[in-house]
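The aim of this short unit is practical: by the end, you should be able to scan a pair of folded records and say something sensible about each. We start with the first protein, listed as its amino acid sequence and then its structure tokens.
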Amino acid sequence: MERVSRWSQGSVQGLVVLALLAILCPCLAWGQEVPLEKCDALPVIEVRVAGQATTFLVDTAATSMLNLKSFAGGKARDIRVSSWHGTLATSAKEVSLGEMVVGDTKLIGLELPAIDLSAIGEACGRKIDGILGVDLIAKLGITIDLKKQMLHVRTADEERAAKLTTEMMQAMRGCLAAFNASDEKAFGECLDPKIVLFTMKTEFYGREQVLGFFRDKYFHQQPGAKLELNEMAFHPVGEAVWYEYEFTIESSLGLLRGKGMAMCRKTDGRWRMASMHHTNESLEPVVARERSAAGAER
């Protein structure tokens, strides 16, 4: 009865977490979406410069620059400009912008070259005030979806989320290596003291139970068990990262394939696995694999 009660409690906790993620995750995915417009066949967006609406051509093959007809101020200097025609040396004005806003992201104190871009506007039938080139596209963390005709600008929250996810993934690589080396001490340090593990058949609570499960089932085999992971769909929340994963474990039992959801959290300056929920498992026993291999050889 106690085991059923503990399973129920853990299952309810898991369902509550999944419900919270369903609420939180769409918000994390929204970010800043800026609609792409067209100047003939060329993609353009609205950019606010010093509070005024301007039109910038989006060009991933060009250097960011301004139209001299729109921004006449500045000092002359020699520059090298990249465009779809290649890179060339030219004389241009260098213009200081007090403020430039793309989506909701504000850039302060930019200095951009200004040359005559009137030929582009004449070709597409609309005034072009500047070019949003590869340098600012990278700086703003912009991705472009031509199918949806949207430009996505990475937010400060997304920057933080990306940093947390990268940090967590780097830490987990060491944990994967510890598992494949049957290094119980190192792998144990990768587990949160209160970790919860749900497999399709049973559940384990706490570091000792979870470590004991992996020790008894996979560690110190000859040849050693091999775990491979494919993580995806990361959702940072606070100092934790939820994500989905697919895995295979090749061991003396056979080849186990599965999917699930996990959470890692950072405590005391270290990332540890706090929760794992296997949502799908299938085992191909050793005998079946050997027969399959023999059949293929014939």
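Turning to the second protein, read its sequence before its tokens, just as you did above.
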Amino acid sequence: MLNIIRTSLRTGRVTVPYPEQSETGACRGRPHIDPDRCDGSSTCAEVCPSGAIAVTRTASGARRWQLDLARCVFCGLCEEACPLGAIRMSADFELATRSRDDLIVGVTHVPRDTSDAREENPPAVAVGSATSAGREDLAASGNYLGSRIRSLLKRSLHIRHMAAGSDNSCDWEIAHLLNPVYDVQRFGIDFVASPRHADLLLVTGAVTRHLEPALRATYAAMPFPRLVVAVGDEACGGGVLQGSYAVAGSVDRCLPVDVYIPGDPPRPQAIIQGLLIALDRLEPKMKRVELRVDA
């Protein structure tokens, strides 16, 4: 016992300070698009393995480049294929949002002779940039999350995790939430085995036809109020399995989803951020943005 205590004192605290402090690391995050460099070509769309990038033409003749972060696997092939260097892979991981549409980033190249479209162009703004106010909200959420959960639910938040057809990458990240490094239990959050004891259903994987009835039955067994959080690109948008005969698709095709946490897989901090958003403890940073440039 003395050796254990001595080792603990020597090791010190290993739990990460997130969300009280911002974290950056070597983990790959979402792609950033530079609208001034993008010419709307389809080179990146041709190499995208999940079909997250699409290039279309509008009725006015404008070319529209669109990235669906819910389906993006963050592989980086688009960055390598872009001949103009318009796409850059970043380390941004705080992508959780309540709306599926907020995960869509678009660049529309408006012909110069289309004056009406030019006048309606919104200003080009950065997507997912962290503001000081947002960081303060995140820190406050982490500090008071445990007490607020108990005041609202009279107990800790209970999560039922269900893999509805995942490749286990997201499940490994969720398992890390319970280790000493991330220790999600410090927020009063814990995982339960029965949906009848759960307040939140955490779903991973593109829902397979075989597991769709089980997913619906699990959701039906949960008491009110109940939340659903989709974790990973497969759960959010179908990922590389989208359109397969064996899957029903993303989770929102079967259940009402309250929060989307994209990534392949999302890192544990990103899942923590999504849980905070699901509990209405902070506002998501991702907002749908349509950038317009003169072609």
